[in-house]
Amino acid sequence: MLRFDMLWSAVPFVALVRVDESARRRGVGRALVEGLCDRARALGATFVLSSATGNEAEPQAWHQAVGFQPCGELQGINDPGVGEIVYLRRL
Question: How much is the pTM?
Fold first, then answer.
């Protein structure tokens, strides 16, 4: 499952990605992201944003594996001292 929102009514943002454990490492997450990117392009977007908690290495690695690059970090929205890494994927 991939849920996306439109931030500020204009920017596609991956709000949630969940793949059942039995289906992981089979390209399901990548296919979901590609589908979102196709949809975002059709809407005229030039990039998609996403994020991952700064203390979780696996989601960070996944983002980069499916074409996202870190572009910033938000502080103060997670536990103290844990940032939220923002990722950008150009279309």
Answer: 0.92
- CA–CA distance, 1 with 29 (Å, rounded to integer): 8
Concatenate the DSSP letters of all residues of 19-41 into one string: --GGGTTTTHHHHHHHHHHHHHH
| CATH value at residue 7 | 3.40.630.30
Rounded to whole angstroms, how far apart are CA atoms 44 and 60? 27
Domain count, the chain: 1
Report pLDDT digits (tens) over 52-90. Answer: 999 999 999 999 999 999 999 999 999 999 999 999 999
Joined together, the tokens standing for residue 5 give 């929102």
